[in-house]
Design a protein that fits this description.
InterPro entries: Antitoxin_Rv0909/MT0933. The chain has about 60 residues and is an all-alpha fold. About 75% of the residues lie in helices and about 0% in strands. The chain has three helices and no strands.
Amino acid sequence: MGKLGDMMNKAKQMAKGHPDQADKGVASAERTLDERTGDKYDARTDKAADTVRRSYRDDGTSER
């Protein structure tokens, strides 16, 4: 696996160890994108944030 894949796996493992902090980061990124685009892509950013949260949540749930 390349360096990018290795970095992504490390980030995912860190997020699994600290899901509450990771949730805050995802929410912040989502909020920033929505603000900068004037909520034009709100539905897409919601879906992307939920996908990211599921990627590091062991039970597969999405909490906000």
